[in-house]
Amino acid sequence: MAQQPYSNGPVQNQLVQSPDGQGYSPAVPGSYSHQMPAKVPPHQSSGQYSYSGSQNVSQLNNYQGPGQTLNRPPVAAFSGSPVQQPGPVSQALPPALQNSAAVSCAGTFPPGASPPVLSNWQYSQTPVSQPLGAQTSHLAHVPGTGSAQPPSSLPGSTNPAETYQYAASPGAPPLQNSYMKPGSAPPPVTQPLTPLHPPRPPLGPPPATPHHSPAAPNLKMNRSVGYSYPALPPGYQHTSPPGAPGMNASALQYPDGSKHFHQPALGTNHLTASMAGLSLQQEGLRPVNLLQERNILPTTLLKAPVPNLHEDIQKLNCNPELFRCTLTNIPQTQALLNKAKLPLGLLLHPFKDLSQLPVVTSSIIVRCRSCRTYINPFVSFLDQRRWKCNLCYRVNDVPEEFLYNPVTRVYGEPHKRPEVQNATIEFMAPSEYMLRPPQPPVYLFVFDVSHNAVETGYLNTVCQTLLDNLDSLPGNTRTKIGFITFDSTIHFYSLQEGLSQPQMLIVSDIEDVFIPMPENLLVNLNENKELIQDLLRTLPQMFTKSLETHSALGPALQAAFKLMSPTGGRITVFQTQLPSVGMGALKSREEPNQRATAKDIHLTPSTDFYKKLALDCSGQQVAVDLFLLSGQYSDLASLGCISRYSAGSVYYYQSYHHKHNPVQVEKLQKELKRYLTRKIGFEAVMRIRCTKGLSIHTFHGNFFVRSTDLLSLPNVNPDAGYAVQMSVEESLTDMQVVSFQSALLYTSSKGERRIRVHTMCLPVVTTLSEVYLGADVQAITGLLANMAVDRSVSATLSDARDALVNAVIDSLAAYRSSVLSIQQPGLTAPFSLRLFPLYILALLKQKSFQTGTNTRLDERIFTMCQVKNQPLVYLMLMTHPSLYRVDSLTDEGALNINDRTIPQPPLLQLSVEKLSRDGAYLMDAGSVMFLWIGKNCGQGFISQVLGVPNYGSIPQNMTHLPELETAESIRTRTFISWLREQRPFFPILYIIKDESPLKSIFLQNMIEDRTESALSYYEFLLHIQQQVNK
């Protein structure tokens, strides 16, 4: 414990913190900066949310999504590091340290077994023998089915990367305000609380009468698992706490220990919470008749619901952008979960770029001896020397060193250490967390140089972007780099010191690939920079005369794997066609006329070559990222496996051509820059743990499941999301709250072994109405989308579509029959699920799941990859785009960020009814944007924003707004660039008129309207109503 043992994010003292708060590669400047500046709302009332101590609230947190008016700082108080992400634990521990007692997941699957096709998706892990009356098709999972690779095997899971608003703003659904507000009267206390130390108001649960009034079924009073040593509510004092057999709960009350630290009790607000809270809760349960209330879409981006926890606990909770659960009220039993007909699962964005991250450099990492959970804000200290794990309830000793708090420099306050004050934290890992010395950053680029590839002109863009960003590749003095090109043969490039120019070595035996001169093919970037730059300048010209049309992608990848396996690292491969020779050669399977039929479309790989190679790569800590730039069918279903199982990512540029499709060039250049310069973690593993009684049974995302609950991630990037499905294995009786923890162990590009831990705490409930009250409709939609991708691949597309529709029917029917006391005509949904039918309809119209002949197979597969690998916020935008009217933007309610004023127009429903011919509308669909100009749009907007005299002179293929110095132009461009900055990919902006060929795509995104092959929103509601009322 020599020097400064800690560096803890934003707390002010001299912390060992790198400028960007991450310890590596700061956010990319310019259009990709992920560090969103903080905006302090003008009328912030000082006492509204305490952000524990004097920490600046993370910029990210303080930043609202488009359309949001700020009326108070977002409630994200995650002290210190407001942002956190999930990630599992103890990964590559040496076997001796690995512990399988971690709450292990129920069934993961024997290699090779494929999940049986079930017509019923149950959310539980119940056996398939369901009563015949059950709805056909619920998303089911049966333990022990699937394969050792995540059954989830399509890439991509999502999680809230940017659901920035979790401030409960007055206009927001009232259920978000249900926890007790700082402004409300303190709970009436019916008997004096044990005196604790005076500076704190009495926060523990008041010992109110344990029975609840029917008026507030959701405010329950349970045994406090929390932080206060004393004062358990009467009636609980002598029960033995779960998991601590033989220990009297009264043992929790140490008369002396408790004086030192009173911590608020975890758990929901109790009955004594101000009555205002009750009426808010009831409003949250208000039934909404969807057939009558047509304008249910909020005018600002939807926020994650705030769990109904005591606010001292909630302010320590994990940021929902990083870790989010489909149900913020966890059902006490599997039977209750089954009854609700909603899926239980988590959505994670564990490696998200954070503007603040407390980093602990202490010599000691405190973990539970039994289940290996990392100490976190939701454990309870029995006294100074003992703490109780919040996942398995084991009582652990507090190590001597942990009694000293390096931030406050006080001895004897373990509960104030940063590890216990931040739900997201990063530890510098000691040597026992390494199986080998941390690897150097190694980057290998593999380029298709066949005639087809040269014709697209992609090499110019890629080599130039690499040249521009060589110095920004994450790394240190050990960074290595290498290049391979291929057509029907494989070309290596020796970059040996002393050569005057790079030397090309050709291997034409693609059946048995060998590596010539391996020591000079991957070289130190700093020592050989001139040769590397020389190669990047000459590569685009080297193959211009090539007539070689064949593509030996398989052998090129085998060569790349052999070259990389001694160290591990990242392979980046660029491919422009179907591989045609050598191992992994493929044949075209797309028949344009059958594109549409939901029957036999080829969503499964045609060979296991790419999956097997990916698993070999994963075993050697190598990930493969695929950039597919192709106008023809390239069988992405097969090629994508190389990235899915090696924890890589897939990028797809349909019909890329430097002359015929110039907007794609800018897109590739911007996305490649972000890809090359974003932070990266090497040789990573992630484990997700949860309170005993809960179990994880299916993972979604790009990775390989190494043991039941350990995900192998040879590379981890800040733009990847993951999802998991869960079930309640044992009843959560006597538990007031449950916790989830993800731990991600990785090697940073600077060669440090680090562990990023996120912990989330949620209340347990016993009634169906409370389960519905806490439903997070976006997280539910995201998890169902992941499950539906799996269903499409294991069964058929139409099965997946049916299961999505049945998910809505079943949950609304359960709500109608079990929660509604008065049966009303119409289609009734709880307020929390009012957008559920709309979001599911949007999924059915999304490219992954739509029917109709206009979706190319590779495009469908790519969208499925995105569903499985994108954080929730991007998935939701891709599924249900945002529509704004932009011809009359004002500064009213605007955000002010870094001296920029960003207009916040309200969101509109996705229906042509909302369009007026005299307006201009921006549709933000995530990876693409459309600016639709109405025929009678005002002359002012056309000349001052588009820079042309009138509607008729707007060019057909306009994709950029001119930089004019008019107020209207500045507002419009600022708004668009602000939307673009918030994401890792670059959406092209298409400016379209009535007669534009792209208008049909714009109209297809009008989810609420009817299309040739899909119902309108109103027709869909009628269909749901008919089924619910059966």
Automatic annotation (TrEMBL):
It is a peripheral membrane protein. Residues 438-676 form the Sec23/Sec24 trunk domain. Keywords: Cytoplasm, Cytoplasmic vesicle, Endoplasmic reticulum, ER-Golgi transport, Membrane, Metal-binding, Protein transport, Transport, Zinc. Residues 365-401 form the Zinc finger Sec23/Sec24-type domain. This is SEC24 homolog A, COPII coat complex component. One of its GO terms (biological process) is intracellular protein transport. It is found in: Cytoplasm, Cytosol; Cytoplasmic vesicle, COPII-coated vesicle membrane; Endoplasmic reticulum membrane. It holds the Pfam family Sec23_trunk. GO terms for cellular component: COPII vesicle coat; cytosol; endoplasmic reticulum exit site; endoplasmic reticulum membrane. The gene is SEC24A. Residues 1-222, 230-249 are annotated as: Disordered. Residues 184-209 have a biased composition (Pro residues). Residues 1-20, 56-71, 117-138, 146-162 have a biased composition (Polar residues). Residues 902-975 form the Gelsolin-like domain.
